[in-house]
Design brief:
This protein has 172 residues and is mainly alpha-helical. The chain contains eight helices and no strands. The longest helix has 34 residues, at 2-35. Bound molecules: fe (ii) ion.
Length: 172
């Protein structure tokens, strides 16, 4: 049984890290495309974000962050949820900037700034593996199951934004 949980943990860690890698690359790609005034490319990358980040945020919010409250305290959950609130604000603002005709130097600068503000959440979140490792096996299993379910159900970031019952924090 212990061995089974171990390999489930490894599978989770790999998937979790790949999701953060994808998010990182999407936001770096958006920054690059903004610099190149490539609105179509930004649209493509935002579609990728919508499809990939939705399930990720969902299982983090539904199962993973609450499971970490015992270790980090209740305020921690609120902070992580606020990071997500802000990520919704960032996504909305990036879409606006990408729609500008033309995209100005100021738009590029703003886009870079808000992406820089978001990236530490993506990389910090990956470090939570160290916390998940010390959770009880049943709590770990609940997180893994929530992840599998979220991936199968493919709730997009936009859909999750409507369902999660919180407001985006506007960024500008
Ligand atoms: Fe994450």
């Amino acid at each position: 049984m212990a061995i089974q949980v171990q390999s489930e943990l490894e599978r989770f860690v790999e998937g979790f890290r790949n999701e953060h890698r994808a998010a990182r690359d999407i936001f770096l790609g958006i920054a690059k495309a903004l610099g190149e005034r490539d609105g179509a490319r930004i649209g493509e990358l935002m579609n990728q974000a919508n499809a990939g980040i939705g399930p990720h945020m969902r299982y983090e919010e539904e199962e993973m962050y609450p499971a970490l409250a015992g270790l980090f305290g209740a305020e921690y959950i609120e902070r992580m949820l606020e990071d997500h609130d802000r990520a919704f604000g960032v996504a909305a603002r990036l879409m606006e900037l990408a729609s500008h005709q033309p995209i100005t130097d100021q738009d590029v600068e703003e886009g870079n700034r808000i992406i820089q503000g978001l990236l530490p959440h993506v990389t910090d979140c990956d470090g939570l593996v160290l916390a998940i490792e010390v959770l009880a096996p049943e709590n770990q299993r609940a997180i893994f199951a929530a992840r599998d379910r979220a991936i199968v159900e493919e709730v997009s970031m936009m859909e999750w934004g409507e369902r999660r019952g919180r407001q985006p924090i506007p960024v500008a």
